Amino acid sequence: MEQTFIMIKPDGVQRGLVGEIIGRFEKKGFSLKGLKLLNVDQAFAEKHYADLSSKPFFNGLVEYIVSGPVVAMVWEGKGVVATGRKIIGATNPAESAPGTIRGDFAIDIGRNVIHGSDAVESARKEIGLWFPEGVANWSSSLS
Ligand code: CMP
């Protein structure tokens, strides 16, 4: 089953949006497979955003991600990578539609609350980076 990596960034955690964001993914029907609150250091943030290292905003982006705790999650379900990106909304909150997370809760591209993998392959890499210990197994759930 398809999985994606979702991170609530420091501004989302500090503003108390964790429950709201988790609720949106749960209510859509996706399954939570991994969840942790943690602080990452500069080297880790640089690794996560390695593809953006040549961008002029790279240093500011890394500084922002290390500025406070983040919530790292793995969500699973049919089409979760693309649908997750729709739930999140466009990268630039000025362009993200109302009803999306960024459309409802952000105004600044540099403080855009949440990250979601942009493709199945990047999800695989990001889950491996953030959850080297693996994720939960639902097979023993009551049903
Ligand atoms: P994210 O989905 O985490 O993927 C890359 C991040 O880079 C993006 O969200 C933004 O937080 C950040 N980003 C992209 N473009 C810009 C920009 N022009 N200025 C500042 N930050 C940016």
TrEMBL record:
The active site is at residue 115. GO terms for molecular function: ATP binding; nucleoside diphosphate kinase activity. Belongs to the NDK family. NCBIfam families: PRK00668.1. PANTHER family: NUCLEOSIDE DIPHOSPHATE KINASE. Major role in the synthesis of nucleoside triphosphates other than ATP. The ATP gamma phosphate is transferred to the NDP beta phosphate via a ping-pong mechanism, using a phosphorylated active-site intermediate. This is Nucleoside diphosphate kinase. It comes from Artemisia annua.
